[in-house]
Structures are given as C-alpha cells and as structure tokens.
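Example with several molecule types.
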Amino acid sequence: MRAAVLRKEPSSMPAPIDPIVEVRGISKSYGSTEALRGIDLDFPRGKLTSLLGPSGCGKTTLLKIIAGLIKANAGSIAVDGKVVTAPGPERAFVFQDFALMPWATALRNVAFGLELRGKARAEREEIARHYIAEVGLAGFEDKYPHQLSGGMRQRVGLARALSVDADVLLLDEPFSAVDEQNRRKFQEDLIRLRSNQNKTFIFVTHSIEEAVYISDRIVLLSPRPGRVSQIIEPEIDRSGDPDLIHRDKHYLDTVQEIWQGLKQYAE
Amino acid sequence: MTLFGYRVPMMASLLVWCVLWEIVGRLDLVFLLPPLSEVLSAAVGLVQTPSWQSATVTTLRAFFTGMVLSIVIGVPLGILMGRVKIADDLLGMWVNIFSSAPLSALVPVLMILFGFGERTIVAAVFLFAIWIIVLDTRAGVRHISPSLIEMARSYGASRRALYLKIILWAALPEILAGIRLGLIRGVKGVVIGQLLVAIVGYGALFETFSRNFRMAEFWALTIILFAFALLIAELIERAEAKVEYYAGAR
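Resulting structure tokens for the full complex:
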C-alpha cells in the first residue's frame, strides 16, 4: 500500500505547502437538504486535485462555490490569500455539458473569455488559435459546435479555459459526456497538458480510475451531507508512456483502496 | 403524389383548384364568383390604378410601423418575463389572455382612442402581433441552458454582455418563430383594422368593391393580400432555417 493516506479526520491534517485555494468551513444547504457540511480544504499550487465521491456528495456544488457561481451558507474561499465571493479572472471553469455557444465557431467560443475582457479581436484570436492547437484541434477553428464530436467540444471548452490564462482551472466532470475511447485519449492529453502548463487543476469526477489516473491528490467526499472523508496522494510516475499507468501496481492498489472505502455508499 | 405512374409536382393540386374555379365561374352559377381568368386580368388592371397604389403604400406603412413597434417592445418584454419572476407573475396572465382573445372586438375601442385614421390601423397591427412575440421570446429565454448563463458569469460577463451576447442569441430561434407568427397575425390586424375603419387603404377598396359588386376586383385584392402574407412568412421561415442550423446542437 504505497498510496499515502494523509488523514481520516479533517482537523488533524498539517497544511500542505503553498496552497493556492483555501476552503474554510464551507457549508451549503438547499432548503432542508444539507449538501455540504463544514468543508476545510487546501489545494496545493501547481497540482491536480480531484474531488471524488458518489453522486449526492456535493462535489460539483463545492466546485461551483469555489468558482463563485454558487453562494455558500457559511465559510469562505480564498484564492492566493484573497477572499473571493464571485467569479474572477484567476479561475476558469470547464463545464460538464461543455457550455459552448452553438451560434459561434470554435474559434469564437475559445476566444469568448477574452472577448468579455475587451481584448482586441486580432489579439484574442491569435491566443485562441494557439490554445486550439494546444488541445489538438488545429484545423477545426471555423467549425460550429454541432459539427464537432462530444470529445472535440470539450476540447474547445478546455481551450477556452486555458486561453484566459487563469491560475486555477476548475473542471466539472469534464469527460462524463464524452464516449469511452475519446475519454481515454483526453485523459492522456490532459496529463501531457499539465506538464507544460503551470496551472492548478481542481477536477470533479465520480470515476475512481479517472481520479487515480490523473490526480496528484484525491479528496474523497462522503455523501449526505458532503464531508471530507479521506485525502489520498497516489505516487504514480506519469512521465513515461501513459498506457503503462493503467498496469502500474500503485495505480491498481490505489483504485482498489478507494473502492473499498466507497463501497459502503453503493446502492 | 403519382398519377398513372407519373410523378405529379406539388403545385399541381393548386392547378386543379384553379381550373375548377374557372369552370364554376364560367358556368355563371354564383354571381359572387367570376372566372379566375377575369379575376387575374382584374388584378393586372387593379395594380395599375393610383387608388390601389396609394392604398398599398398606406397599408404597408401601417403594417410595418405596427410590426416594428411590436417587435421592439415585445422582444424585450418577453426577455424580461423569461428572466424576472415578478415580471412574469404580473404580466403572464394578461399576455396569455390577449394572445388568445378575439381581438377584433377591441378594434372599435382603438378607434375611440386613436381616431378614424392610420394610427388606429397601426394600433390594431400592434395589438394582434405583439402577444405571440412576447410568449415565444419568453419560452426561448426559459429554455436557455443554465450552464450557458453560468459560463458567461464565470468568464466575467457584465449584465449587458450577458443579455446581448448570450441570452438574445440563445433565444433567437424562438424569437424568430414568434416574429413569424406575429407577422401573420399582423396581416390579420391590418386587414381587420382597415375593414372596420373602412376609409383607409385596402379597407376602403374592399368596401368600394363589395358595395358595388365588383367581384373580380374584390377577389383580385384578396389574392394579392394572401400572397403578401404567405411571402412574408416564407421570408422569415428562411431566416429561421438558417438560425436553426447554427442552433441545431442545443
């Protein structure tokens, strides 16, 4: 068992070095339903942290609170030491259903964040072209979303998030609406992208394999109300062939360990 | 449709009815119905008369003024109702009542308010057209995916940008459908308004023709009106098809 289990209880954990996002005492209820209770979390700079848990554990809610899209009932979010309550340019969001404008080309969709910031057209399109190439969509700039497959649409969504040059990327189950083989390819590309983009990723997923495959850190959330139940740091070398990771012993052990922990919540 | 093994084009059915009309007209069964050929030659004569030309100008001006007003007021009103619950609660009932009410009954009231002139006709077009535009716009705004709104917010859209760059475009297919239906209702409004006022534009012509039993010209004018209404609906439908194409992936 090489995966280091850092804690079972939220309070007993030493603060990791240099957190970029600090979550303090976040609670959220929808009417009488308690979605999140007293979440305390630190997200280390430059790492990919996954929020993993069964449906109903509030992982997407937590991500949207960090994004400033949902207001929490209690607690605070700080990014780079500053408390934030609304969306800001230091965070960029990737949506589960892509959230692309169907009336705009891939190029305009990718450039949209910069367009909203009032960047001149030539400049923002140059940046957008760069990131479209970066996510492997060169040549598809003038296509409309309905002309692209699900995987390609999400690449547009990812390029849009990259092009605003935010420090923190928030990804809400980005591959769940993408078919299986494209998802595998996309995960590999994400690992590659991570190594040449110096960014912090916060990644929501319900797939154990996906979380272990791509994450530096996995935060396990338990459902009803959502709470932090465990934090795991898989020690997997991702520098080599991405296909080998799926056969890596530490990868398999960690998947198994998390499954043992989550089993109790399966219906 | 195939007949004796031959493919018959769609327009053929129209041709059958035209021939039927011609035969019934020639048989002189009903004096209300002159032969189609007579109606068509009356149409050719009619469009050359100054009275038809000035009536057409008056009618078109009233129609387009009324339509522009109902679009300029109807679309923002529909967006407001789609986005703000209080506005929807306050106005929803009335918009629904007016969109299905027999509005012809209200035209005499318009005459009292606006006098026996063009303003009443404009008001009639507006009254007939606006409600369906409001309802369809509202439905379009309601159907916008919440994540598209969240996307705009998360990338820092101002309120103005959110409405002009996202909401208006995302609801455009429904807005255009509303405008198309509004245009058809607007044609109704202009005709009914003019008939009731009876001294303006086509209303005056209809009045003259039917009072003097000039049936060929009466039918010619009717055909011209129908053709106009169909043409304008067709034009909007083309624009809609183009937008549907872009919005097809919603």
